[in-house]
Design goal:
Length: 567
């Protein structure tokens, strides 16, 4: 019987939130997503062993998870929230620490992570009253208020699977308030256990054959732009370019990120990855050729990249219906032809990312399966179509009630029992030579990403281009210093690590007035701090322009920030 192959690729990623000068974790998103999303996503797969998926872990996320595991093992925490959670004397914290907790402990989706909890909501209402006080008056707030605030913040960021099955967390939910130091300490230890168990849980899913783990260039760089800024013109010929004509030594830097990622993956999971999901699904012919040289067997991107490539390959031929081009593997003509490329169904991926959170979960799951059935029944070929659903594995779920628990449980259950929809992985799919023999050929690949099929989220406006110019200047200083041999080998290693963090795509993502001001300020500050740390490591003066914000964002923005629709 003809089957429909379905590949879920859950992309797990956070940039490097460490200030490498102080070793402090400036932002908490790695450990918060770990206890909420990475934990829940493992649970849903563990409870549905018939469902297969690809899970993509970016190496810099794994490094930070490992860092947190080390912190918990030693008790020496380098994140302010975790330090205060385990602080026995919250009544003695400073005014600045009080301000930090009030600013930090309500950062979440309030609709799903604050409103359902009356005690936590009451703490928020108190905080609104505190905002009218001057700083010195904040000293009157009791230590018990901050104890309850810290416990509640971590409860709402806890995975739904943990809330449902952990007796201690259920006790805290029933207790509601008046949390003791012992309560906080036990919660602190639970967080450590959850983080420490993550990589072993996913490794076990690999060993059972249920999931495939893929990787991304180590620090999540926008690789096609690093190789060649002009690749942005493939999809947007009139795009505004940075003053710097190219990123100095960009190809060597991308090779570094690729090689480092493969080594990191083998270190954490005891095997080489078969495929690479490039950061932001950003593809170019030059990048694919480099990946092929690293023995990468598959890669993937967004539907709009395929559409632009088909139009460029056959400009005089009208684009056929989606069923005639999307649901099949491709090879790129030329040196990257040894690789197989897949392109996600943007509509289905965006339904999960942005729309189904507003639906009743069983209806959303049923609709998703019906969409797949529609693809199956409208496929006119004799091959088994392959549908790729690719999206962030962490950022969507806080928009869902109960962290997407019911949607994922329902959709996995329906797929596990379905007569002709078969979940699979890219590794398993390309292991069948018949599938590879049916791959179509793209004569020309139009460079682009999974967001709009362009690179406009990372380059092309004044603020993003200014950030590239600052990074290019720092890279020129880096190259000159490395050539001068004024640094010791240890100092060189620290400088390379700091440069790598500066090269992340995430900084450029956040620049722009369409993003929320609070988020922009955090990422803008960390990007500039990374560059300043790099200059210090290079023993060079810090350019004065790094003291001023690059972007301020928009206080009126309703954009979720961390995710973008494909079109």
């Amino acid at each position: 019987m003809k089957k429909l192959n379905l590949v879920f690729l859950w992309h797990m990623h956070q940039p490097d939130y460490r200030d490498h000068a102080t070793q402090e974790f400036v932002l908490p998103w790695v450990y918060l997503h770990a206890i909420k999303d990475y934990t829940d996503m493992a649970y849903h797969l563990e409870t549905h062993p018939q469902v297969k998926a690809v899970v993509n872990f970016v190496p810099i996320l794994l490094d930070q998870l490992d860092d947190f595991a080390q912190q918990f093992s030693t008790g020496k925490m380098r994140n302010p929230l975790l330090k205060q959670l385990s602080n026995p004397r919250l009544e003695d914290i400073s005014i600045q620490e009080r301000i930090y907790l009030l600013d930090s402990c309500f950062l979440s989706n309030h609709e799903n992570m604050l409103k359902p909890y009356p005690s936590y909501r009451r703490l928020y209402e108190f905080s609104q009253a505190f905002s009218k006080y001057n700083d010195n008056e904040l000293g009157y707030i009791s230590g018990q208020y901050f104890a309850d605030l810290l416990v509640w913040y971590h409860i709402v960021w806890m995975g739904e699977s943990v809330r449902r099955h952990n007796v201690f967390v259920q006790k805290l939910l029933e207790q509601n308030k008046g949390f003791s130091y012992q309560d906080r300490l036990q919660l602190f230890n639970l967080i450590g256990d959850l983080i420490g168990d993550l990589i072993p849980r996913y490794r076990k899913l690999v060993e059972s054959g249920q999931i495939e783990l893929s990787t991304t260039p180590h620090y999540h760089p926008l690789a096609p732009l690093m190789i060649d800024f002009s690749s942005a013109k493939d999809s947007q010929p009139d795009i505004l370019m940075p003053d710097c004509s190219s990123y100095p030594g960009g190809q060597d830097r991308v090779n570094f990120h690729l090689t480092s990622a493969l080594q990191s993956h083998a270190r954490y999971f005891d095997h080489e990855p078969c495929g690479i999901w490039p950061a932001e699904g950003a593809m170019s012919t030059a990048l694919l050729e480099m990946m092929a040289q690293q023995d990468c067997r598959w890669s993937a991107s967004g539907e709009n990249v395929l559409i632009n490539s088909l139009r460029a390959s056959c400009p005089d031929t009208p684009l056929p219906g989606k069923n005639n081009y999307l649901y099949q593997p491709y090879r790129i003509a030329g040196q990257a032809s040894s690789m197989v490329c897949f392109f996600r169904d943007d509509r289905l991926s965006d339904l999960i990312g942005f729309e189904y959170s507003k639906w009743f979960a069983p209806d959303a799951a049923k609709n998703f399966v019906q969409e797949l059935e529609h693809i199956y029944h409208n496929d006119i070929g004799d091959r088994d179509p392959i549908v790729s659903v690719i999206l962030d594995g962490e950022n969507a779920w806080e928009s869902y009630p109960y962290n997407g628990y019911y949607f994922l449980q329902d959709v996995y259950q329906m797929l596990a029992q379905h007569p002709f929809i078969r979940t699979t992985t890219y590794r398993d799919y390309i292991a069948d030579n018949q599938n590879i023999e049916r791959a179509a050929t793209l004569n020309k690949l139009t460079a682009g990403s999974w967001v709009y099929g362009t690179f406009s989220t990372w380059i092309g406006d004044y603020e993003k281009n200014s950030a590239w110019d600052l990074l290019c200047a720092a890279k020129r200083c880096f190259d000159q210093t490395m050539e001068s041999n004024v640094l010791t080998e240890e100092e060189k290693e620290l400088a390379i690590r700091q440069l790598s963090s500066c090269e992340s795509s995430d900084w450029f993502w956040w620049f722009g007035d369409y993003n929320p001001a609070h988020s922009v300020a955090s990422f803008d500050q960390l990007f500039r701090k990374n560059l300043m740390n790099l200059y210090r490591l290079l023993k060079s003066p810090i350019p004065p322009e790094l003291l001023d914000p690059i972007s301020k964002g928009n206080n009126e923005s309703q954009d979720a920030g961390a995710m973008r629709r494909s079109s």
